[in-house]
Amino acid sequence: MSGNGGTESTPLPAGFSVRPAARADLAAVHEVIIAADIAVVGEPDTTLEDLQAEWDRPRFDVGRDVDLVVTPAGRVVGYAAVFEESPGLELQADVYAHPELPDAATLERHLVERVALRAQRYADTAQSRISMVSYAIANEPLGGHLEACGFEVRRRFWRMAIDLDGIEVGPLPPDVTIDALDVERDLPDVHRVLTEAFTDHWGTHATDLDEWRAENLDRVDADPSLWRVARRRGEVVGAVIGREDRDLGTGWIPRIGVSSA
């Protein structure tokens, strides 16, 4: 979803308040996200390391970019984050409210309105109008809150899963080999190939090698032993980033791409 503008008009339930986040809130925020994952998709879908990696992104300031809704007793029950994906061009946002609360929908709506206002403030100070992207599961209340604040559905994404038992691997072309990643030698070429592969993909913004490395290799759950590099006559022509979510019992491929040449 993308959009901009909006007003903050939905009040919080009596006694609830919003405060900035701190690093010490990481586990409490993760509990809210996991509860929402289970309520919406039926199982946990976000590890603590996922969230920490998001908070560690370049240009992300937890105290500035995260709002928390807390109960009168101080329990964290709502989370909204805005990330400057591309300076002066695009923001990304996440909004969660603990689904067990009777007022969860009110919390979501209030946080969506705060996010929309923040996007408007960014746009007012940018050279061009900023697009903001947020994600919602189809037919869930959050999507309705986003649309009510002026967001429009622009893209739909599918998550694909496969059981690898019994999978047969086809033969490679005779001049292509697939090897493990050698970080110092291969990383610049892997960055180049994957950047080129996603050049025309919706929402992609090229990043330099240092930022790309920070987002993909320096994150707390990165495991370069799961990366693979394809070479043709010694030249890197393809790569895959592999990741294992041990807490969730799954493997994950964030990026895979090959050179068009």
What would the keywords be for this entry?
six-stranded mixed beta sheet, four-stranded antiparallel beta sheet, 7 helices
Question: How is this structure best described in words?
Answer:
The chain is of the alpha+beta class and 261 residues long. Helices cover 31% and strands 25% of the residues. The strands form 2 sheets. A 6-stranded mixed sheet has the order 1-6-5-4-3-2. It has a 4-stranded antiparallel sheet with strand order 7-8-9-10, covered by helices on one side. Helix 4 packs parallel to helix 5 (141-148). The longest helix is centred in the middle third of the chain and has 22 residues, at 104-125. It starts with a strand and ends with a strand.
